[in-house]
């Protein structure tokens, strides 16, 4: 598909029958976008690139050196070429101008007889406008062909072959997973050189790229490279349409794959329940990856409150597509198991496990960021992540820990919540103490005097104590956070010292108080949750 007009093509038009190319003949392949008449030597502010300039030479007839400066500016503005009417104001072109034009492959054409510039501009502009109209028609036809292929083809390579043959370019697709495809095919060395080489180098003249988006995230990068011409706006539009249809095609494939995998998850359930043998597990994993190359795994569980009641299959599938797309970018391969209340995700780590938590946190934040810009809301989903296990045969251990994390989160204040089991160690100990039956009694033994004072005098000692400890005894920061003046804070600290003893900030006693305050918040939240559940039932 030839989407542009060259300087060489207009040489066959009727107004160019008495012309001669005196310099830069190898540049006749330059693209031509417009015709411009200029007689002034100052042109920098007049041109945008790819214009063919017409001139009678009146601007430099008294000073031929101005022509050299004029041509230098045209070359700098990426003009398509220069046409000069000879024998009207000038009779020849200086040799240094011809040498400059040949060096930069910049065409200089002379009219051997007088011509009407207005007729030339009308003729060429009509040609350009008709070409633009034809390109719009071609673009629409190309789009229709893509839409038809969307319904008929089952391999994305067919779209890439189409754009390659249509534009006569090299096509390269870089997937987020690291896979690279080339049409026509290239050796690994050739591919690497093309991807790393800058445009206008020895390897190629021009390069364009477009990200293929799926659910708001980049899935791949589509690149076209030309070795023979500068890629233009039409090429960019064709690239854009192809990238859009590829995104829709891959989204459809991913959706179908997720639905298919939903029906084949029995072995995943056995894996979660530690009821699968290693050879059976590795047999299921081998088509996807070499099992031994996984550095470990972690299970995370999503508890969905309202989405299940609305449209569970549709919502879960959409959520799976988002999470799989994002987590793949951070080095995890995901498996999903749906239970009555939860969506269970097994995340196998394809990278070194030393920064798995950081990568997983970034992935979850990325999903929440996507969620905030989406009409579908997943903020109702509570997420609990279990322990990271290096032996994927022990994934059941991570699964049980993830369930415990979800359960613990019901009794943890919002500011102390975490996705991860290992971050809730204090609350795990509190749960054990609560089950022993003496946690509440112990907490009140420590904090009752402070609470009784607040109750009797409508005070804020308990809140002050908690903030003072959190600020590591900094009076300035504590008063700022409580929005009180220093004198009020000093008065409250004196009361706390009277009730708890002057040594309450010393390490041993401070540690006990901090633990009891966390336990108090835990018990308060626990009682509230129990009450709400009782009211619901």
From TrEMBL:
Positions of the Purine catabolism PurC-like domain: 9-128
- Cited Pfam families: HTH_30, PucR
Q: Which domain of life is it from?
A: Bacteria
* All copies of domain PucR C-terminal helix-turn-helix, residue ranges: 461-518
Q: Where are the transmembrane segments?
A: none
Question: Which segments of the protein form a coiled coil according to its record?
Answer: none
Q: In its UniProt entry, what is this protein called?
A: PucR family transcriptional regulator
Q: Which organism is it from?
A: Metabacillus litoralis
